[in-house]
Amino acid sequence: MGVNLQRDNGGMFMSRTLQKLFSNLVLSDGGERGGGCGLQATGYRISNFEFRISKWLPSAALALTLALTGAAQAQLTLTGTNYVQNFDSVASGLPSGWSVRTNATSSTRGTAVTFATTAAAWNSTTGSFRNSSSATGSTSADASTVQSANTNRAIAMRQTGSYGDPGAAFELEIGNTTGKNGFSLQIKHQMLDVQTRSTAWSVQHSTNGTSWTTAGTFSDPGAWGSTNATYNFGAALDNVSTPVYIRIVALSGSTSTGSRDTYGIDDFTLAWSGTPTPFVSATGSVSGLFAPLNTASEAGTFSVSGAYLTQNLTVKATLAP
Q1: What residue spans define the domains of the chain?
Q2: pLDDT at 304 over 90
Q3: Nearest-CA neighbor of 227 among 274, 266, 279?
Q4: Per the count of CB atoms within 10 A, which of 28, 40, 115, 182 is most buried?
């Protein structure tokens, strides 16, 4: 939906339609030429926000494009030294930072789709991402009523020939990892309804949503139950100031014939260390360069590199007495 706004005599004007649709929308003027505008909203997820300044005149026209994505969640902000998600509250929706997707590939995040919050039985054959009973503390013989009443929940996915096979993904988006390093993940892979087809689920991470690295793959064991797994991300996610993505994704189509499994994840625990230690490395030397007064010396070169720096590097030349 495109909405036109105008800046006139220091004020910002919003169309009645926009005010009606977004009663909690607040537009603020930057106040300076070229300062732009700010946008805030409560109760809505706003993405793809952009504006273009077409001409700077006493009354400057600003074009603003808003796109609402009901399936996407706000980015997760990391605090402390770990993040633990047991998914026990998914009846109210996905946790912050999480989305479920179809059509994911090795170089794309895929399309965010709806998560069904109503409890669903493991053996439901409807293709969907769903709120399921966790396998932890359960048995494969549990009736649907027992599953529904279980307070230990998991987020699950049933693939079909036209839904999520391949390309289904559970994705976590983290705002940044600034000041954090040494990331590792513990997770429970859950086989909730075992069928004849098999799907491999890869655990991947990315710092841009297009280049993905596989930390490990869970292969269908052909048996009902929960499997604990640990993945180490090395230094790949250390101290990143931009969004970071972790996903569990089916990149390849299922194998064999017949029906597809219901697969889920539970007890997702991401751990990290605290602030990394800054370090600086220098190579080369410019010592021992001499020249008469008011005469340039010979050229000298050196290289300086560093990581986790909190301030700019300052290089000083010291004259010999």
Answers
A1: 2-68, 82-273
A2: no
A3: 266
A4: 115
Written as six digits, the tokens of 267 are 């007890």
Check if the beta carbon of residue 1 is closer than 8 Å to that of residue 66. yes
Show Cβ contacts of residue 145 under 8 Å, excluding neighbours closer than 6 positions: none
CA distance 164 to 147: 24
Question: Which amino acid makes up residue 11?
Answer: G
Distance CA 62, CA 38 (A): 12
Structure tokens at 220: 């269908």
Q: Considering Cα of 285, then 289, then 293, then 296, what sign does the dihedral take?
A: negative
Half-sphere exposure of 122 (CA within 13 A, CB side): 27
Neighbours of 115 (CB within 10 A): 20
pLDDT of amino acid 203: 98
Q: Please write the tens of the pLDDT for every residue from 32-65.
A: 333 334 333 333 333 333 333 333 333 333 333 3
Q: CA-CA distances (angstroms) from residue 282 to 50, 312, 313, 317?
A: 42, 15, 11, 15
Tell me the two tokens of residue 142.
């549990």
Nearest to 197 by CA among 143, 246, 256: 256
Nearest Cα to 209, choosing from 114, 106, 69? 106
Buried b (16+ CB within 10 A) or exposed e, 186-225: ebbbbbbbbbebebbbbbbbbbebeebeebebbebeeebb
pLDDT digits (tens, 9 = 90+) for 163-196: 999 999 999 999 999 999 999 999 999 999 999 9
Give the torsion sign (CA, 132, 133, 136, 139): negative
Residue range 82-273 forms a domain whose CATH class is mainly beta
Q: Are 155 and 90 in contact (CB under 8 A)?
A: yes
DSSP code of 91? Answer: G
